[in-house]
């Protein structure tokens, strides 16, 4: 069903198509085919400025949100680094405080995305683009129900979003949908871009004791991506070292999926200097 904004844009396009098509039909040399061609050109010419304006506005909003998120992450990172340098003993308390601070910033970012609603009146893709970012943010603060609702009306714009959707399908036990999404996404994100997806799919297979299937995927993926992490995991599985299988080498990109938590850093106690 078309919304108000789609109707406005569509009307503008139709008017442009009719006007230019009618003008061309008055020309003796312009037959039915060329009249249709110029009608299409008129439709595009009428809607293109609107779409470009919407795109520019949306990019500006996304940049503001990402800038706010980056500023918060920088603050959290500096505090965590300072605590590590001082070898503070209450690291768990500090970690919870930093997580709370980051979650609050994410909630503010989600609320800030509400300003995109007027833009949704001009292009139906805006809602899906916003839902993609909104779904990622909800996923980060573990509001998975809200993330699922957003992902249901989103775009597969990057491997991270696809990986988050795969995690949710895995958690819900929807293996058929998971395999379908993985297979489809592998065709789109080839080479190095598919590393996270291969790592996630094989991790799930290992968890489900489907080691042979994981080996088959890794055998192909390690060649396509040239990822040392996938190469090592393939070697571990082939040689029966299941406990050595790990995606920790992917760093924050892996831990952002909330399937595993990084091992805590052990701080060595400083010895007092004797006088």
Question: Can you tell me about this structure?
Answer:
The chain is mainly α. Helix content is 70%, strand content 0%. It contains 11 helices and no strands. It has helices at residues 4-25, 32-86, 91-112, 125-140, 144-151, 159-171, 175-188, 195-207, 211-225, 228-238, 252-255. The longest helix is centred in the N-terminal third of the chain and has 55 residues, at 32-86.
Characterize the main sheet.
none
Residue stretches low in confidence (pLDDT < 50, at least 5 long) are 1-46, 267-275
Percent in helix: over 70%
Order of helices and strands: HHHHHHHHHHH
How far apart the termini lie comes to: 81 Å
Overall mean pLDDT score? 77
Radius of gyration, in angstroms, nearest whole number: 25 Å
Q: How many strands in all?
A: 0
Q: Quote the beta fraction.
A: under 5%
Topology, please?
Elements: H1 4-25, H2 32-86, H3 91-112, H4 125-140, H5 144-151, H6 159-171, H7 175-188, H8 195-207, H9 211-225, H10 228-238, H11 252-255
Helix pairs in contact: 1-2, 2-3, 3-4, 4-5, 6-7, 6-8, 8-9, 9-10
Question: What's a quick, concise take on this entry?
Answer:
Helices cover 70% and strands 0% of the residues.
Keywords:
single chain, 275 residues, mainly alpha, 70% helix, globular
């Amino acid at each position: 069903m078309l919304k108000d904004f789609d109707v406005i844009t569509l009307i503008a396009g139709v008017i442009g198509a009719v006007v230019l098509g009618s003008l061309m039909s008055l020309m003796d040399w312009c037959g039915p085919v060329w009249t249709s061609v110029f009608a299409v050109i008129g439709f595009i010419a009428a809607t293109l400025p609107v779409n470009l304006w919407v795109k520019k506005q949306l990019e500006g909003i996304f940049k503001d949100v990402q800038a706010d998120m980056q500023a918060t992450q920088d603050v959290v990172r500096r505090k965590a680094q300072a605590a590590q340098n001082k070898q503070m003993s209450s690291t768990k308390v500090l970690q919870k405080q930093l997580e709370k601070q980051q979650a609050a910033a994410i909630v503010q970012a989600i609320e800030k995305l509400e300003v995109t609603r007027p833009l949704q009146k001009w292009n139906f893709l805006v809602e899906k683009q916003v839902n993609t970012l909104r779904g990622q943010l909800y996923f980060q603060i573990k509001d998975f129900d809200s993330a699922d609702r957003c992902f249901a009306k989103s775009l597969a714009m990057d491997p991270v979003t696809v990986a988050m959707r795969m995690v949710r399908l895995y958690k819900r036990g929807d293996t058929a949908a998971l395999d379908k999404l993985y297979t489809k996404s592998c065709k789109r994100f080839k080479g190095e871009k598919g590393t996270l997806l291969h790592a996630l799919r094989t991790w799930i297979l290992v968890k489900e004791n489907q080691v042979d299937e994981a080996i088959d995927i890794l055998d192909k993926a390690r060649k396509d991506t040239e990822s040392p992490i996938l190469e090592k995991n393939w070697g571990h599985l082939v040689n029966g070292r299941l406990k050595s299988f790990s995606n920790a080498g992917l760093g924050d990109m892996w831990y952002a999926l909330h399937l595993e938590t990084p091992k805590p850093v052990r701080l060595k106690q400083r010895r007092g200097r004797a006088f």
